[in-house]
Automatic annotation (TrEMBL):
Example of a GO MF term: dynein intermediate chain binding
Protein name: Dynein light chain
Native source species: Populus euphratica (Euphrates poplar)
Localization terms from the record: Cytoplasm, Cytoskeleton
PANTHER family to which the protein is assigned, alphabetical: DYNEIN LIGHT CHAIN
InterPro entries, per the entry: DLC_sf (IPR037177), Dynein_light_chain_typ-1/2 (IPR001372)
Length: 113
């Protein structure tokens, strides 16, 4: 496990959720090799989906770029020693039913003509 303190880079999450994200990062680092970034990311994503609902994403690594859209209050970017963690919820609303989504699409298409 990495022993370093988590360093917050940027976030718009509530403090309790931030603490939970960092706690999960430490748990994931305990369970997986530091080099197994995919397993670490999968562990954190699954835990966030379980607690906060679906559509969470997690990126873990030592050097990556990103450009994302996220829901307000659902973004955190921090590091533990040399490992970076990006966790966010997708910008789409997955609670819509298929029928509601089709209705919105039809309204959009009508307003386009």
């Amino acid at each position: 496990m990495l022993e370093g303190k988590a360093v917050l880079r940027e976030t718009d999450m509530p403090e309790q959720m931030q603490s939970h994200a960092m706690e999960l990062a430490y748990q994931a680092l305990d369970l997986h090799e530091v080099s197994d970034c995919q397993s670490i990311a999968h562990y954190i994503k699954q835990k966030f989906d379980d607690v906060y609902g679906p559509a969470w994403h997690c990126v873990v690594g030592k050097d990556f770029g990103c450009c994302i859209t996220h829901l307000g209050g659902s973004f955190i970017f921090f590091r533990v020693e040399m490992v970076e963690f990006l966790i966010f919820k997708d910008g789409r609303d997955f609670s819509e039913s298929k029928e509601e989504a089709i209705g919105v699409l039809q309204q959009f298409q009508k307003s386009d003509t």
